[in-house]
Design goal:
The chain is α+β, with helices and mostly antiparallel strands and 346 residues long. It has eleven helices and ten strands. The longest helix has 21 residues.
Protein backbone atom coordinates (compact mmCIF):
# COMPACT_ATOMS: atom_id res chain seq x y z
CA UNK A 1 0.00 0.00 0.00
CA UNK A 2 1.23 3.48 -0.89
CA UNK A 3 1.09 5.33 2.45
CA UNK A 4 0.30 8.93 1.60
CA UNK A 5 1.33 12.14 3.32
CA UNK A 6 1.39 15.82 2.48
CA UNK A 7 4.95 15.26 1.26
CA UNK A 8 4.22 12.56 -1.32
CA UNK A 9 0.55 12.95 -2.33
CA UNK A 10 1.35 15.19 -5.32
CA UNK A 11 3.86 12.60 -6.59
CA UNK A 12 1.17 9.91 -6.10
CA UNK A 13 -1.38 11.92 -8.11
CA UNK A 14 1.13 12.52 -10.90
CA UNK A 15 2.24 8.89 -11.10
CA UNK A 16 -1.34 7.60 -11.15
CA UNK A 17 -2.36 10.07 -13.86
CA UNK A 18 -4.75 12.03 -11.62
CA UNK A 19 -3.02 15.32 -12.41
CA UNK A 20 -2.35 16.67 -15.87
CA UNK A 21 1.22 16.08 -17.12
CA UNK A 22 3.51 18.84 -15.89
CA UNK A 23 1.06 20.06 -13.24
CA UNK A 24 2.29 21.30 -9.91
CA UNK A 25 0.25 21.33 -6.72
CA UNK A 26 0.40 22.06 -3.02
CA UNK A 27 -0.96 19.82 -0.25
CA UNK A 28 -1.88 20.39 3.37
CA UNK A 29 -3.44 18.15 6.03
CA UNK A 30 -6.99 18.73 7.23
CA UNK A 31 -8.07 17.98 10.79
CA UNK A 32 -11.07 15.74 10.06
CA UNK A 33 -11.74 13.15 12.73
CA UNK A 34 -9.54 10.40 14.14
CA UNK A 35 -9.70 7.64 11.54
CA UNK A 36 -8.12 8.79 8.26
CA UNK A 37 -5.39 10.81 6.66
CA UNK A 38 -7.14 13.77 5.01
CA UNK A 39 -5.30 16.13 2.65
CA UNK A 40 -6.40 19.14 0.65
CA UNK A 41 -4.58 19.28 -2.69
CA UNK A 42 -4.57 22.43 -4.81
CA UNK A 43 -3.23 21.91 -8.36
CA UNK A 44 -2.20 24.99 -10.30
CA UNK A 45 -4.40 24.17 -13.31
CA UNK A 46 -7.47 22.28 -12.07
CA UNK A 47 -9.96 22.48 -9.19
CA UNK A 48 -8.78 21.53 -5.70
CA UNK A 49 -9.59 18.10 -4.32
CA UNK A 50 -9.54 16.27 -1.00
CA UNK A 51 -7.62 13.01 -0.69
CA UNK A 52 -8.61 10.60 2.09
CA UNK A 53 -6.74 7.42 2.96
CA UNK A 54 -7.97 5.11 5.70
CA UNK A 55 -5.63 3.87 8.39
CA UNK A 56 -6.04 0.61 10.36
CA UNK A 57 -5.47 2.24 13.77
CA UNK A 58 -7.55 5.20 14.86
CA UNK A 59 -5.99 8.10 16.75
CA UNK A 60 -7.42 7.55 20.22
CA UNK A 61 -5.90 7.02 23.68
CA UNK A 62 -7.28 3.47 23.83
CA UNK A 63 -6.30 1.03 21.03
CA UNK A 64 -9.00 1.09 18.36
CA UNK A 65 -8.69 -0.68 15.00
CA UNK A 66 -10.93 -0.87 11.95
CA UNK A 67 -10.51 -2.33 8.48
CA UNK A 68 -9.25 0.10 5.84
CA UNK A 69 -12.08 -1.05 3.55
CA UNK A 70 -14.35 1.39 5.39
CA UNK A 71 -13.26 4.04 2.87
CA UNK A 72 -15.28 2.15 0.23
CA UNK A 73 -18.42 2.52 2.33
CA UNK A 74 -17.92 6.26 2.43
CA UNK A 75 -17.94 6.41 -1.37
CA UNK A 76 -21.08 4.24 -1.51
CA UNK A 77 -22.93 6.42 0.99
CA UNK A 78 -21.96 9.62 -0.81
CA UNK A 79 -23.25 8.27 -4.11
CA UNK A 80 -26.50 7.26 -2.42
CA UNK A 81 -26.99 10.70 -0.89
CA UNK A 82 -26.22 12.90 -3.88
CA UNK A 83 -29.76 12.53 -5.35
CA UNK A 84 -31.37 12.81 -1.90
CA UNK A 85 -29.87 16.04 -0.56
CA UNK A 86 -29.72 19.59 -1.99
CA UNK A 87 -26.74 20.48 -4.21
CA UNK A 88 -23.64 21.15 -2.16
CA UNK A 89 -24.86 19.27 0.91
CA UNK A 90 -22.28 16.51 0.33
CA UNK A 91 -19.08 16.49 -1.77
CA UNK A 92 -18.95 14.55 -5.01
CA UNK A 93 -16.74 11.48 -5.38
CA UNK A 94 -13.96 12.12 -7.91
CA UNK A 95 -12.23 8.74 -7.89
CA UNK A 96 -11.40 5.67 -5.79
CA UNK A 97 -8.11 3.80 -5.62
CA UNK A 98 -9.11 0.57 -3.92
CA UNK A 99 -5.58 -0.86 -4.04
CA UNK A 100 -4.38 1.94 -1.77
CA UNK A 101 -7.60 2.63 0.19
CA UNK A 102 -7.79 6.13 -1.26
CA UNK A 103 -10.87 8.24 -1.91
CA UNK A 104 -10.77 11.58 -3.73
CA UNK A 105 -13.55 14.08 -3.15
CA UNK A 106 -14.61 17.47 -4.42
CA UNK A 107 -12.98 20.07 -2.15
CA UNK A 108 -15.18 22.45 -0.18
CA UNK A 109 -14.30 26.13 -0.46
CA UNK A 110 -11.28 26.84 1.77
CA UNK A 111 -12.92 29.59 3.81
CA UNK A 112 -15.28 27.15 5.56
CA UNK A 113 -15.58 26.76 9.32
CA UNK A 114 -16.01 23.48 11.18
CA UNK A 115 -19.27 23.84 13.11
CA UNK A 116 -17.79 22.10 16.15
CA UNK A 117 -15.29 24.91 16.59
CA UNK A 118 -17.99 27.56 16.38
CA UNK A 119 -20.05 25.74 18.98
CA UNK A 120 -17.07 25.47 21.32
CA UNK A 121 -16.76 29.25 21.00
CA UNK A 122 -20.47 29.55 21.96
CA UNK A 123 -21.37 30.89 18.52
CA UNK A 124 -24.81 29.34 18.21
CA UNK A 125 -26.25 29.45 14.70
CA UNK A 126 -29.90 28.41 14.75
CA UNK A 127 -30.08 28.40 10.95
CA UNK A 128 -27.35 25.75 10.77
CA UNK A 129 -29.22 23.62 13.33
CA UNK A 130 -32.44 24.00 11.34
CA UNK A 131 -30.71 23.07 8.10
CA UNK A 132 -29.11 20.00 9.67
CA UNK A 133 -32.49 18.85 10.94
CA UNK A 134 -33.71 19.08 7.36
CA UNK A 135 -30.72 17.20 5.95
CA UNK A 136 -30.97 14.34 8.43
CA UNK A 137 -34.73 14.18 7.96
CA UNK A 138 -34.28 13.87 4.19
CA UNK A 139 -31.63 11.15 4.56
CA UNK A 140 -33.96 9.07 6.73
CA UNK A 141 -37.21 9.78 4.89
CA UNK A 142 -35.96 9.39 1.33
CA UNK A 143 -34.13 6.10 1.99
CA UNK A 144 -36.80 4.50 4.18
CA UNK A 145 -37.74 1.05 2.91
CA UNK A 146 -34.93 1.15 0.32
CA UNK A 147 -32.09 -1.15 1.37
CA UNK A 148 -31.04 -1.14 -2.29
CA UNK A 149 -29.46 2.32 -1.78
CA UNK A 150 -26.35 0.61 -0.39
CA UNK A 151 -24.47 -2.47 -1.62
CA UNK A 152 -24.39 -5.16 1.08
CA UNK A 153 -26.96 -3.24 3.12
CA UNK A 154 -27.21 -6.10 5.62
CA UNK A 155 -23.49 -5.89 6.50
CA UNK A 156 -23.04 -4.12 9.84
CA UNK A 157 -19.45 -5.18 10.46
CA UNK A 158 -17.97 -1.69 10.02
CA UNK A 159 -20.72 -0.11 12.08
CA UNK A 160 -19.96 -2.65 14.78
CA UNK A 161 -16.22 -1.87 14.67
CA UNK A 162 -16.70 1.89 14.73
CA UNK A 163 -19.77 2.38 16.91
CA UNK A 164 -21.43 -0.64 18.56
CA UNK A 165 -18.31 -2.13 20.13
CA UNK A 166 -16.30 1.02 21.07
CA UNK A 167 -19.39 2.86 22.24
CA UNK A 168 -22.04 0.48 23.57
CA UNK A 169 -20.23 -2.72 24.50
CA UNK A 170 -17.40 -0.69 26.00
CA UNK A 171 -19.64 1.25 28.41
CA UNK A 172 -21.39 -1.99 29.37
CA UNK A 173 -17.99 -3.36 30.41
CA UNK A 174 -17.22 -0.20 32.36
CA UNK A 175 -20.67 -0.19 34.01
CA UNK A 176 -21.82 -3.82 34.44
CA UNK A 177 -25.14 -2.65 35.90
CA UNK A 178 -26.25 -1.50 32.43
CA UNK A 179 -25.15 -4.62 30.55
CA UNK A 180 -28.72 -5.84 30.08
CA UNK A 181 -30.00 -2.41 29.02
CA UNK A 182 -27.19 -2.05 26.45
CA UNK A 183 -27.73 -5.55 25.05
CA UNK A 184 -31.44 -4.75 24.71
CA UNK A 185 -30.58 -1.48 22.95
CA UNK A 186 -28.33 -3.25 20.43
CA UNK A 187 -30.99 -5.89 19.76
CA UNK A 188 -33.68 -3.24 19.38
CA UNK A 189 -31.50 -1.33 16.91
CA UNK A 190 -30.96 -4.54 14.96
CA UNK A 191 -34.74 -5.02 14.67
CA UNK A 192 -35.26 -1.53 13.20
CA UNK A 193 -33.15 -1.53 10.04
CA UNK A 194 -35.35 0.85 8.12
CA UNK A 195 -33.27 3.55 6.38
CA UNK A 196 -29.79 4.84 5.60
CA UNK A 197 -28.06 6.01 8.78
CA UNK A 198 -25.05 8.34 8.79
CA UNK A 199 -23.79 7.21 12.25
CA UNK A 200 -21.27 10.07 12.42
CA UNK A 201 -23.69 12.98 12.08
CA UNK A 202 -21.68 15.33 14.27
CA UNK A 203 -20.67 19.01 14.46
CA UNK A 204 -17.08 18.02 13.57
CA UNK A 205 -18.41 16.72 10.25
CA UNK A 206 -20.39 19.86 9.40
CA UNK A 207 -18.59 22.50 7.32
CA UNK A 208 -20.22 25.95 7.32
CA UNK A 209 -19.48 28.45 4.55
CA UNK A 210 -21.11 31.32 2.66
CA UNK A 211 -22.73 28.90 0.20
CA UNK A 212 -24.41 26.88 2.95
CA UNK A 213 -23.61 23.73 4.92
CA UNK A 214 -21.75 20.63 3.73
CA UNK A 215 -21.65 17.23 5.45
CA UNK A 216 -18.50 15.09 5.42
CA UNK A 217 -17.21 11.75 6.73
CA UNK A 218 -19.56 8.86 5.90
CA UNK A 219 -17.58 5.69 6.54
CA UNK A 220 -19.87 4.60 9.37
CA UNK A 221 -22.92 4.83 7.09
CA UNK A 222 -25.16 1.78 7.01
CA UNK A 223 -28.76 0.68 6.62
CA UNK A 224 -30.17 0.75 10.11
CA UNK A 225 -32.08 2.55 12.85
CA UNK A 226 -32.59 6.33 12.48
CA UNK A 227 -32.84 6.60 16.27
CA UNK A 228 -29.08 6.09 16.46
CA UNK A 229 -28.41 9.21 14.37
CA UNK A 230 -30.69 11.26 16.60
CA UNK A 231 -29.08 10.09 19.82
CA UNK A 232 -25.57 10.46 18.43
CA UNK A 233 -26.04 13.99 17.08
CA UNK A 234 -27.93 15.32 20.08
CA UNK A 235 -25.34 13.90 22.46
CA UNK A 236 -22.77 16.22 20.88
CA UNK A 237 -24.96 19.27 21.38
CA UNK A 238 -25.85 18.41 24.98
CA UNK A 239 -22.23 17.81 25.95
CA UNK A 240 -21.12 21.12 24.47
CA UNK A 241 -23.96 22.93 26.22
CA UNK A 242 -22.45 21.97 29.59
CA UNK A 243 -19.60 24.39 28.96
CA UNK A 244 -21.95 27.39 28.96
CA UNK A 245 -24.27 27.53 31.95
CA UNK A 246 -25.05 31.17 31.19
CA UNK A 247 -26.36 30.21 27.72
CA UNK A 248 -28.47 27.18 28.62
CA UNK A 249 -31.64 28.74 27.22
CA UNK A 250 -29.93 29.43 23.88
CA UNK A 251 -28.54 25.89 23.72
CA UNK A 252 -32.02 24.53 24.34
CA UNK A 253 -33.29 26.70 21.47
CA UNK A 254 -30.54 25.33 19.23
CA UNK A 255 -31.54 21.75 20.00
CA UNK A 256 -35.21 22.64 19.42
CA UNK A 257 -34.39 24.18 16.03
CA UNK A 258 -32.79 20.92 14.90
CA UNK A 259 -35.43 18.60 16.36
CA UNK A 260 -38.39 20.65 15.10
CA UNK A 261 -37.07 20.75 11.55
CA UNK A 262 -36.22 17.05 11.60
CA UNK A 263 -39.74 16.13 12.74
CA UNK A 264 -41.32 18.33 10.10
CA UNK A 265 -39.37 16.59 7.36
CA UNK A 266 -39.75 12.96 8.46
CA UNK A 267 -43.44 13.37 9.29
CA UNK A 268 -44.30 15.09 5.99
CA UNK A 269 -45.02 12.02 3.83
CA UNK A 270 -46.39 9.47 6.26
CA UNK A 271 -43.32 7.20 6.26
CA UNK A 272 -44.32 5.51 9.50
CA UNK A 273 -41.07 3.58 10.02
CA UNK A 274 -39.07 6.81 10.34
CA UNK A 275 -41.73 9.09 11.80
CA UNK A 276 -40.79 11.04 14.89
CA UNK A 277 -43.47 9.14 16.81
CA UNK A 278 -41.91 5.81 15.85
CA UNK A 279 -38.36 6.76 16.80
CA UNK A 280 -38.55 9.14 19.75
CA UNK A 281 -38.53 6.57 22.58
CA UNK A 282 -35.66 4.62 20.99
CA UNK A 283 -33.75 7.85 20.43
CA UNK A 284 -33.81 8.51 24.18
CA UNK A 285 -31.88 5.31 24.88
CA UNK A 286 -29.40 6.04 22.10
CA UNK A 287 -28.94 9.55 23.48
CA UNK A 288 -28.14 8.05 26.88
CA UNK A 289 -25.76 5.47 25.39
CA UNK A 290 -23.93 7.99 23.21
CA UNK A 291 -23.60 10.54 26.01
CA UNK A 292 -22.13 7.95 28.34
CA UNK A 293 -19.83 6.63 25.60
CA UNK A 294 -18.29 10.07 25.17
CA UNK A 295 -17.44 10.04 28.88
CA UNK A 296 -16.51 6.39 29.47
CA UNK A 297 -16.12 4.86 25.98
CA UNK A 298 -13.12 4.51 23.67
CA UNK A 299 -13.46 7.97 22.12
CA UNK A 300 -14.02 10.50 24.89
CA UNK A 301 -14.57 14.24 24.56
CA UNK A 302 -11.66 16.52 25.40
CA UNK A 303 -13.49 19.80 25.96
CA UNK A 304 -15.31 19.37 29.28
CA UNK A 305 -13.30 21.56 31.60
CA UNK A 306 -14.74 20.97 35.08
CA UNK A 307 -14.77 17.76 37.14
CA UNK A 308 -18.51 17.97 37.82
CA UNK A 309 -19.39 17.77 34.11
CA UNK A 310 -18.59 14.09 33.41
CA UNK A 311 -20.05 13.20 36.80
CA UNK A 312 -23.32 14.91 35.89
CA UNK A 313 -23.45 13.18 32.50
CA UNK A 314 -22.72 9.80 34.07
CA UNK A 315 -25.44 10.23 36.70
CA UNK A 316 -28.03 11.37 34.16
CA UNK A 317 -27.35 8.67 31.59
CA UNK A 318 -27.23 5.79 34.05
CA UNK A 319 -30.58 6.99 35.40
CA UNK A 320 -32.03 7.17 31.87
CA UNK A 321 -30.78 3.70 30.95
CA UNK A 322 -32.39 2.28 34.07
CA UNK A 323 -35.66 4.21 33.62
CA UNK A 324 -35.82 5.95 30.21
CA UNK A 325 -37.91 9.10 29.80
CA UNK A 326 -40.89 8.28 27.53
CA UNK A 327 -39.92 10.63 24.66
CA UNK A 328 -36.97 12.63 23.41
CA UNK A 329 -38.70 15.86 24.43
CA UNK A 330 -38.99 14.58 28.00
CA UNK A 331 -35.30 13.66 28.01
CA UNK A 332 -34.22 17.04 26.65
CA UNK A 333 -36.33 18.88 29.21
CA UNK A 334 -34.87 16.72 31.94
CA UNK A 335 -31.30 17.36 30.81
CA UNK A 336 -31.64 21.12 30.58
CA UNK A 337 -33.51 21.49 33.86
CA UNK A 338 -31.70 18.90 36.01
CA UNK A 339 -28.15 19.09 34.68
CA UNK A 340 -26.02 20.21 36.48
CA UNK A 341 -27.37 17.61 38.86
CA UNK A 342 -28.55 18.68 42.31
CA UNK A 343 -25.66 19.05 44.73
CA UNK A 344 -23.11 19.70 41.99
CA UNK A 345 -21.58 23.17 41.47
CA UNK A 346 -23.19 25.41 38.91
Amino acid sequence: MWELSADNVVDYLNRTGRLRPGSTATAQPLAWGVSNLVLRVEPDDQPPLVIKQSRPQLRTKVDWFSRCERIYREAEVLRALLPVLPPGAVPQVLFEDRENFVLALEAIRPDHAVWKQRLLEDRLDFDVADRLGGYLGLIHRETAGRPDVLPDAADWSLFDELRIDPFYRWIARVHPSIDSAINDLIEEMNRHRVCLVHADFSPKNVLVHVDGVTLVDFETGHYGDPAFDLGFFLSHLLLKSLRSNDQRVDWRRLVTAFWSRYRKIVDATGQTTVSSTATTARAVRHLAGCLLARIDGKSTVDYLRDPWQPVAVRQTTLRWLADPPPTLDHALDDFFTRTPAPGLPE
